[in-house]
Amino acid sequence: MNGPARGYWCECWTQDAASAEEPALLASFDAYSAPQADRWVAIALRTISPALDSDASDEAWTWLHEDRAETRRALMRSEHCTVTITHAGIRITWTIRPVIFLPLAHRQGTELPACAHSFKPHSAD
């Protein structure tokens, strides 16, 4: 990436619907097109749908068959989108936000600071 690039920041959050606990981030994904962003949600929903209760499964398949096209259109208009299902008292929410990704400096071909060579990976016991 040579300069800023438009894309979408996707996250999956879970929250116990009956408690006051803050939502927990379960996963995140950087997508570079609207189809890639909504496909990330679609793959997740298809993957978990066999394990969902009947109401949550209905919510998932409704989005997959009826609401997904509107989500993609909204993303193409650079609008924030969410998809939420509730399974066994757990609210699962996917968020997709339009973003501008900034390029990061590559470490190859440049001199690293001296402290970088003193780093030793932690070995598992």
What does this structure look like?
The chain has a four-stranded antiparallel beta sheet. It has 125 residues and is of the alpha+beta class. Helix 1 (34-48) packs antiparallel against helix 2. The chain has two helices and four strands.
Straight-line N-to-C gap: 38 Å
How are the strands ordered across the major sheet?
Answer: 2-1-4-3
The SS-based structural class is: alpha+beta
Summarize the amount of helix as a percent range.
25-40%
Q: Give the overall form.
A: extended
Unreliable sequence segments: none
**Count of strand segments:** 4
Query: Main sheet, how many strands, which sense, barrel?
Result: 4 strands, antiparallel
Radius of gyration: 19 Å
Percentage beta strand:
25-35%
- The mean pLDDT is 89
Salient structural properties:
125 residues; extended; alpha+beta
List the helices and strands and how they pair.
Elements: E1 5-16, E2 24-31, H1 34-48, H2 54-76, E3 81-87, E4 90-101
Helix pairs in contact: 1-2
Q: What is shown here, in short?
A:
The chain has 125 residues and is an alpha+beta fold. The longest helix is centred in the middle third of the chain and has 23 residues, at 54-76. The protein contains 2 helices and 4 strands.
